[in-house]
Amino acid sequence: MTGAISVLIGVLYLAMIVVLDSRGPLQPPPPEAMGELPVSRTQALAANSAALPAAVAPPG
After folding, report:
1. What residues contact 47, with CB distance under 8 A and at least 6 apart?
2. Global model pTM greater than 0.90
């Protein structure tokens, strides 16, 4: 009786794995799912240039 239950659990597990594997490879979540907003390239460059300190001339 215990062997039959073990085989049944094994077959159910195998069936579950086959179904999950047939869905294809995992894809990473979109940035919106991580709480990040998509940013255009020009917005990213403007944000980076605003964060950089202004160039200072060396003392003369």
Report:
1. 39
2. no
| 7 neighbors 1 (Cβ within 8 angstroms) | no
**Cα→Cα distances 38→31, 49, 51, 60, Å:** 7, 18, 19, 45
| Angle, CA of 13, 14 and 16, to the nearest 5° | 65
pLDDT tens digits along 32-52: 888 766 566 676 666 666 555
List of residues 6+ apart from 31 with CB closer than 8 A? 37, 38
Token pair 């094994």 in the structure block, residue: 10
Token reading at 30: 């979109």
